[in-house]
Specification:
nine-stranded mixed beta sheet, 19% strand
C-alpha cells in the first residue's frame, strides 16, 4: 500500500513553462499583472480577456489560483498559450496569494486585477505612458467604476486629496493602483497579519516611505460589488483599521475617531 504524501500538490503552466520569457525594454517597459482567484468561474474569463485584449502589448500576466474546485482552474488552463504563468496551490488568503504573484513578476511596474473585475481597453497604455513621463514615481492610480449585481454601472470613484478623508477611506483605489517593482522593494509586500486591510496598510507604508504618486484622471478598472473588500468604499475590519491608523498616526484617539467615522459612512451607504 502506498503512503499518502503530505506534500501540497502544486500545478503550474503558461508561456514561461514553454520557454517564452518577456522582457523590459527602454521604450516598452514590461507591465506585470497579477490576478488571484479562488472559485470564481463566473467572472474569471472576463477578467482574463480584459488583460489579453489591451492596446498595450508588453504585458506579463500571472494568475495565482488557490486550488479552485468549481471549474475556475479548468478555465485558466485553457489560456495556457496566452498567460505568462499560472500557479494553482492552496494559500493563506488573498494577500498571501498577491504576495506570491508579486514575487513572480519581472516587470518594472505591477498591477493587481481582482478576478471579479476588468480593465478598460486603454488601461495598460495609460499606465505605461504615465510611467515613461514620470520614472521617479512609484504609484500610478486612477478611477474605478463600480458595477452592481444587475450589471449597472455606478458613478466612478476616485481618491481624495484630503488627508483625513484618505485615512477614512483609502489613499488610492487599490483596483486602479499600480506600483513599481522599486516601490515594493522599498516598502515591502502585503502584511499577512491583516486579513482584509493589508492593502490599506501597504498604501500608508508607501506614502510614509516617500513614494511619489501620479493620478490618471480616467476610469481604469471596473469593479463588481462582490468580494471581501469591494462592497463599500471602506475596508472591512474596524479593528485592523484602528491598528493601522494608530500605527501611522501615532494617536489612539485619532484612530478611534476615524474608525467611528468609517462605520458611520458604511451605515449611510446601506
Amino acid at each position: 500500500m502506498k503512503k499518502k504524501s503530505n506534500k501540497k500538490e502544486v500545478l503550474s503552466g503558461g508561456l514561461r513553462k514553454q520557454g517564452f520569457i518577456k522582457k523590459n525594454t527602454k521604450n516598452s517597459p514590461l507591465l506585470s499583472v497579477i490576478t488571484v482567484v479562488y472559485n470564481n468561474k463566473k467572472y474569471i474569463s472576463d477578467t482574463i480577456e480584459s488583460v489579453l485584449t489591451q492596446a498595450y502589448s508588453n504585458i506579463e500576466y500571472i494568475i495565482i489560483d488557490g486550488k479552485s474546485t468549481d471549474g475556475t482552474f479548468e478555465i485558466i488552463k485553457k489560456y495556457s498559450e496566452k498567460i505568462d504563468y499560472w500557479l494553482s496551490e492552496p494559500d493563506n488568503g488573498i494577500y498571501d496569494a498577491m504576495n506570491k504573484g508579486i514575487m513572480l513578476t519581472s516587470g518594472e511596474i505591477i498591477g493587481i486585477l481582482n478576478s471579479d473585475d476588468w480593465w478598460e481597453p486603454e488601461t495598460a497604455q495609460l499606465i505605461i505612458e504615465a510611467y515613461l513621463k514620470n520614472e521617479k514615481a512609484d504609484i500610478f492610480h486612477g478611477k474605478i467604476r463600480p458595477v452592481d449585481s444587475s450589471g449597472i454601472f455606478l458613478p466612478a470613484r476616485t481618491h481624495s486629496n484630503y488627508f483625513l478623508k484618505r485615512l477614512i477611506s483609502t489613499p488610492f483605489k487599490h483596483p486602479a493602483m499600480f506600483v513599481t517593482k522599486r516601490g515594493y522593494n522599498n516598502s515591502g509586500l502585503f502584511d499577512l497579519k491583516y486579513k482584509t486591510a493589508a492593502d490599506y496598510d501597504l498604501m500608508l507604508r508607501l506614502i510614509k516611505d516617500g513614494a511619489k504618486d501620479i493620478f490618471i484622471d480616467k476610469i481604469l478598472t471596473n469593479v463588481r460589488k462582490v468580494g471581501i473588500t469591494t462592497g463599500t468604499n471602506t475596508v472591512s475590519s474596524p479593528d485592523e483599521i484602528k491598528e493601522i491608523i494608530e500605527k501611522f498616526a501615532g494617536l489612539k484617539l485619532l484612530g478611534k475617531f476615524l474608525v467611528l467615522m468609517r462605520q458611520f459612512i458604511m451605515w449611510l451607504k446601506k
